[in-house]
Amino acid sequence: MDAEISSRVPLGAYTLPGRVSDPRAAVAQADAAERLGLRTLWLSERWGTKDLGVIVGALSQVTTTVRIASGITHFQSRHPALLASLAMTAQALSDGRFILGIGRSVDAMWAAVGLPRSTNASIVDHADIFRRLCRGEKVRYDGPAGRYPSLRLNDVPDQPVPSLVFAAIGPRGLELAGRHFDGVLLHPFLTPSAVARAVAVVRDTERSAGRPVGSVRVYATVVVACDLPAAEELAVVGARAVTYYQIPGFGERLAAANGWDPEPLERLRSHSLLAGIRGAADSVLTREQLVEVASVLPVEWTAEAAAVGSARNCHEAFERYRDAGADELVLHGSTPDRLGPLFPTIKVGPGRE
């Protein structure tokens, strides 16, 4: 690869981003990820066609080197013993390449599906329960994470406990990651300046908690559209932005992290195409409709917080995130089989049939 446009920061990527009707595409995407030398392959779980356990099991058998990460699932969506069982089975199948990404989500989602909302106390205790179960310990617990009179995995493989990565935007989530997790996954559409501020919070928290500085791996998520026609670039970046900014409270947190005036969020949410949509916009709207909605967002909301244009432009954006303190980038929007232009000397073939 041309040294002038090579990346000095490890790169990972998402498989099956957004709305997916056929999860089998993940196999070819995983094959492409290994050919490109990506460090980590991430799955954003969505109920229906992107079940974490099934897809991680499949990917573990068609790859040998790339790490496989959930980015993200939630503690309360599975019984603690089932989640620990899934994780350790994935460790056994992948020879220790599994990473468990955990998020908080929003209270409205948990109310809608009848599950308890996340609190800082429940997240910390769930993490401890998870690690103990993965080590084969017996757990008796009654507290913020629930009531579990007697839990144990009868058989655990000779594999380490998977790394736990927490998805965060604001300072409280970043501090939680700095104290209790092995890594932090930063949200898409944070500018390099916002990432630098996030890294500072994590490192300061590590120090105050008595942890070695740098023990928490910082993953910065960057939406990428490399060497695409203008219309396709807008579809990749703009449509992805809508799915985040449409969520009340969530969009405001992203705007605040970037130091942006949140006023455009009202214009976005009042768009006629979003009327009556309570869930994710991409579960209802086509890509063309999402692009139309995205047109009301300020240009800088995508231009400053994504990597677009030529391969050189994208790698220069990656360097800005590296300089901000990111340990690894998670490329989003474009799947690994579409990232070939970033790696001009590496052939990305059709993969496995």
Automatic annotation (TrEMBL):
Keywords: Oxidoreductase. InterPro entries: F420-G6PD/mer, F420_OxRdatse_MSMEG2249_pred, Luciferase-like_dom, Luciferase-like_sf. The keyword Oxidoreductase applies. Coiled coil: none annotated. GO terms for molecular function: oxidoreductase activity, acting on paired donors, with incorporation or reduction of molecular oxygen. Transmembrane segments: none annotated. Residues 21-328 form the Luciferase-like domain. This is Luciferase family protein.
